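# nightly structure sweep
# worker-07 picked up a monomer target from the shared queue
# config: single-sequence mode, recycle default, output format = structure tokens
# input follows
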Amino acid sequence: MTGESLRLDGKVAVITGGGSGIGRAAAVSLGAAGASLVLVGRNADALEESARLARETGVEAKTVVADVSRSEEVRRYVDETVSSFGTVDVLVNNAAIEGLVAQLADYPEDEFDRIVAVNLRGTFLGLRYTLPIMIDQGSGSVINMASIAAERGLPGTCAYNASKHGVLGLTRSAASEVAGNGVRVNAICAGVVDTRMLRSLAEQFMPGQMDEALTAIAAVSPTQRLGTPEEIAVAIRFLACDEAAFINGCAWAIDGGALGTMGGGWT
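# output follows
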């Protein structure tokens, strides 16, 4: 590839869950590629910090405080994006929550509903209100953030696992429907990445033993280390760019080899 590769100049990208972790890293990466940004989430201060970092790359970045599980708020962030920039070229459906760790037979029903509402319904709503714009313009790329939990089971995280399996189903259904319109829908199955969410799960699995828990979790990957948000952002940037035009309906494992090997685990 040339020095002009993987550019997003003139494109508009929406990133949900843009206030931290993978969302923040994606904002900086897509901004560095030239995309104008709209960052969506529930924490205004965190969103503004991500926007500030993205603006340092020389692009325009706006923030919208919204709950991705609520249809009217998803419509609002899409409408505000179109009002500000005229269109949506890239959607990164990244917003997610981990929830409680508990055995399925004891899992609180309201907690299950809460996790599915954000992780799965939020992804569905983002697709529902963004795809018509992309279809009309004949181009667009959606990157749904799944997880290695979309391909494997993990005791204690039934709601999270179910929601991420569902994200893959949405990805594949949408990809089959819109490919003929020049629109691509892919998913990234991120591995164990050092984020607030992962550390929350680590604390629940091994209370008061964070270092030991992170070491055990890192053993999921044959690399024996955690990934970084920036490493996931590289894949997001690639899938957003025109160079990835023939990649559609993909479930791309960015996990240090965890799904592709006989690696260990932390349970």
